[in-house]
Design a protein that fits this description.
25% of the residues are buried. With 254 residues, this protein is an alpha/beta fold. The mean pLDDT is 89. The protein is 51% helix and 16% strand. It has 2 domains: 73 residues, CRISPR-associated endonuclease Cas1, N-terminal domain (Ribosomal Protein L15, Chain: K, domain 2), CATH 3.100.10; 170 residues, Four Helix Bundle (Hemerythrin (Met), subunit A) (Up-down Bundle).
Length: 254
């Protein structure tokens, strides 16, 4: 599958013969192309069109972040797994089965939030029991009975809000979140969540790039120009068990 490379310093990324070369402070660091599937530029990195053409030839995705760690965008090479038949079928699924697929996504979010909270419940954080019971007895039934996407989004929003309200039971006081603030994050926990969500979103972009699926045809989020909405759909399900659980472990260790 190839490796993920992270560039954390300011510098210049260029093509050098048939390799990638990152130049910083007068030194060259070579990155082999053969075993690279994606690059994260987590600082200010200069590039040129010669490099972009070389990356495209080798199907290497590059995710760009600004100096402050904010996600800027993704260089997405031309699709190399184009399948007209699958795109037609994916569009037909959107037309005919969108609600069922969106329902499965929201249900997955709730069940993964349940698993995270149940972990803390087993470790004597009994205060989370109310939300655990609500997910099992009420939330899942609401999702199954939802009549449209708008209802599903409302239920999704509620389960996230209840999840946030439980942070105070198992996080240090400095990391308690009063509310979710994104642009920009207003405290350490919001900053960690935003960064983690972005990493998961970009990882999902890279994973879908290796399939025949079209990134623009989504089911829970509205398909729209200017973003990969299918990646938003899929990454949403895994946020509780990958992003949040990782953050909780790191904060509680610290």
């Amino acid at each position: 599958m190839g490796s993920t490379r992270y560039i954390m310093s300011m510098g210049e990324l260029t093509r050098k013969d048939n390799s990638l070369c990152f130049r910083k402070n007068g030194r060259n660091v070579y990155i082999p192309v053969e075993n690279t599937k994606e690059i994260y530029c987590c600082n200010e990195v200069s590039i040129n069109t010669k490099l972009l053409d070389f990356l495209s030839q080798n199907n290497i995705i590059v995710h760009f972040f600004n100096y402050y760690g904010g996600y800027s965008g993704t260089f997405y090479p031309r699709d190399h797994y184009l399948s007209g038949k699958l795109i037609v079928k994916q569009a037909a699924k959107y037309q005919n089965d969108r609600l069922d697929i969106a329902r499965a996504i929201v249900k997955g979010i709730g069940l993964n939030i349940y698993e995270v909270l149940y972990h803390y419940y087993k470790h004597d954080k009994k205060e989370v029991k109310e939300t655990i019971n609500w997910i099992k007895k009420i939330f899942l039934k609401q999702v199954e009975q939802a009549a449209n996407i708008k209802e599903l989004l409302a239920y999704e929003g509620e389960v996230w809000l209840r999840f946030y309200s439980n942070f105070k039971f198992f996080l240090p006081e400095d990391f308690v979140m009063n509310k979710r603030v994104k642009r920009p994050p207003d405290n350490p926990i919001n900053a960690l969540i935003s960064f983690g969500n972005t990493l998961l979103y970009t990882k999902t972009i890279s994973a879908i790039y290796q399939t025949h699926l079209d990134q623009r045809i989504s089911f829970l989020h509205e398909p729209s120009e200017g973003r990969f909405s299918l990646s938003l759909d899929i990454s949403e399900v895994f946020k509780p068990v990958i992003v949040y659980r990782t953050i909780f472990d790191l904060v509680n260790i610290a």
